[in-house]
Amino acid sequence: MMTMNKYGLYVVTDENLTLGRSIIDVVGEALEGGADVVQLRSKSGSTRDMIDLGGRLLELVKKYNSTFIVNDRVDVALAIDAHGVHVGQDDMPPDMVRKLLGSNKILGVSVDTVEDAKGAVAQGADYLGAGAVFLTNTKTEAPEIGTKGLKEIVNSVDVPVVAIGGIKLDNLGEVMSTGVDGVAVVSGIMSAKSVKSTAEQYKKKIIGQAER
User: Fold this and answer.
1) Within a domain: residue 3?
2) pLDDT per residue over 31-40, tens digit each?
3) Total domain count for the chain?
């Protein structure tokens, strides 16, 4: 199985939150600000649109030696040779995704319980996306696990855990103190007035907490 060297700042795209800017521009600024991972999450685009956008984002991400993940769509990830795929509990089971991806691609799985976390690792997950840590408007159906639930997941597995859900600059320290390997941010980056400087602030806090 392949694992990423660093998760740190994990940026998730949402075309509805960019304040009219293009995803390419926003992601470019996030990468300039230090984003370690970019995940393409698109619920509305056609397969052709996702392949086109994904291919462009992948080339951009490679310039910064960062990692590019496609959400849900194993076919799109394989078509553009992305670094990996992230799936949820209602998507294709992780062990089936692993068979399609092979051993050299990254597989991430969303979890919100210790049971799900252990199951995902047993089925080949390289890292886990744990949350929602706090209630969030970008995924209203996700239960809030809080930092207590997050820490329980971190302590239950031996693969990296990335926290997601309502993570802002003012609660970032609390989240990092649970021992997570990184934080996934959607609206905090996508809707930032200055994406680059906001990404830099997240990254500075993440590095500062990790070194404690």
Assistant:
1) no
2) 999 999 999 9
3) 1
Question: Which residue in 110, 151, 196, 205 is the catalytic one?
Answer: 110
73, 98, 105, 139: which is the annotated catalytic residue?
Answer: 139
130 within a domain of the structure (yes/no): yes
Give residue-wise pLDDT tens across range 100-121: 999 999 999 999 999 999 999 9
- State how far the Cα of 104 lies from the Cα of 91, in Å rounded to an integer: 21
Is there a catalytic annotation at residue 41?
A: yes
For residue 133, what is the domain's CATH number? 3.20.20.70
212 is annotated as an active-site residue: no
- Domain of residue 49 covers 8-210
pTM of structure? 0.96
Low-confidence ranges of the chain (pLDDT < 70): 1-5, 138-140, 212
Cα gap 105→84, rounded to integer Å? 5
- Alpha-carbon dihedral 128, 133, 135, 137, rounded to 10 degrees: -40
